[in-house]
Recover the amino acids of this structure.
């Protein structure tokens, strides 16, 4: 059983005790969190990589910046797509091409015919790699203060300003927690 509160569907914000350069000031959306570990995607690391010719049809639903994001250091050759389903599609999501995650979010199958999937979604973000934790690892890092666990807002996954997401999420928090948004990079 997970010792701390599950983080699936929530955001992890890196704090200064986390010294791993892969995660400095990152915002991670948690896709899975259970006894075997956790898996998430870094939301605020766009790369210069664009979708290749084989995936170019998907760019029609990519918000700016329409690049591939660095989802994390694990399996950097893996592409993971997260889509926002349209309201009508959310109830009738095709499990073959759109696997519901949380609310109106789904994992999209990039091998599917885009013409079959795009009418059901309003936005798509593609990530290369992911962040992963073994059993108990994420719980230990949270307890050590390396991560803040916060609720996402609908546009966090598809923000047009991913470089500002860490500060934006902190600024909307109540009380002194919002002050962290203005902390210098080198405390």
């Amino acid at each position: 059983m997970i010792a701390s509160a599950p983080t699936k569907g929530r955001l992890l914000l890196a704090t200064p005790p986390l010294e791993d350069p892969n995660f400095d000031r990152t915002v991670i959306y948690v896709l899975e969190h259970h006894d075997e570990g956790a898996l998430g995607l870094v939301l605020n690391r766009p790369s210069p990589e664009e979708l290749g010719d084989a995936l170019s049809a998907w760019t029609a639903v990519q918000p700016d910046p329409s690049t591939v994001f660095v989802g994390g250091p694990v399996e950097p050759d893996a592409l993971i797509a997260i889509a926002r389903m349209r309201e009508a599609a959310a109830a009738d999501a095709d499990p073959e091409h759109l696997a519901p995650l949380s609310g109106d979010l789904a994992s999209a199958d990039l091998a599917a015919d885009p013409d079959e999937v795009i009418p059901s979604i309003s936005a798509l973000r593609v990530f290369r790699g992911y962040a992963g934790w073994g059993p108990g690892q994420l719980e230990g890092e949270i307890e050590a203060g390396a991560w803040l666990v916060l609720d996402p807002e609908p546009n966090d996954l598809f923000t047009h300003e991913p470089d500002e997401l860490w500060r934006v999420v902190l600024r909307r928090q109540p009380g002194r927690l919002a002050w962290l948004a203005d902390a210098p990079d080198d405390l």
